[in-house]
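Notebook entry, structure prediction.
Reason for the run: the old model in the group folder had no record of what sequence produced it. Starting over properly, with the input documented here first.
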Amino acid sequence: MNMKFWLYSGLLVLVLALVGVGIWFVLKPADKVEIPETDPWMVMDISYLEEGTQSQLTIYDDGTVIHWKDTGLPGALSPDPARTWRTGTLDSEEMDDLSEFLDTIGFNELDEYYLSSAVSANETVIIEDNYLKISVDNENTVTAHGYFTPLTSSQFYPLPDPLAELREKLDDIVANNTKETLIEELTTD
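New structure, fully documented this time:
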């Protein structure tokens, strides 16, 4: 009888532990990025499909920062397409600084389109690849096309000054205010 008691007690503890672990996974699922349901305040899209990369930085009014970068897309040398997610937050002072910076560079007065001198005057421009697009409040959008070099998307033909400064500031936010939270494999179907 004593042996059965310990056996049943052990099984009961094991079942309770498994149920507890299952509940924990349901309440705290892994591999998930929480995206706010509100419209973003600022969005920066970068696309260079020739090299197989795309990325997006999104900043929300509450300071939530979400950045994803796709690598290894069709056309790239890398055979393993993946999306890397980084998340973080900006405090109210950092949000105010960014808003002030936009005013300082005169973001609302910038031209809508900038075309690199690397793009031939005879070339028909379709903004699907090789672009940087920044929009604020879903109203003011600035697009720069043709600034990536053929060798690597990390190098640019010189962007116009205000855009270069803004890109640098936003890259700094990704580097210093976010951390990697998820890496997903992408299907190539």
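Summary: The beta strands are 42-48, 53-59, 64-71, 82-89, 113-115, 131-136, 140-145, 178-185.
The old model has been moved to the deprecated folder.
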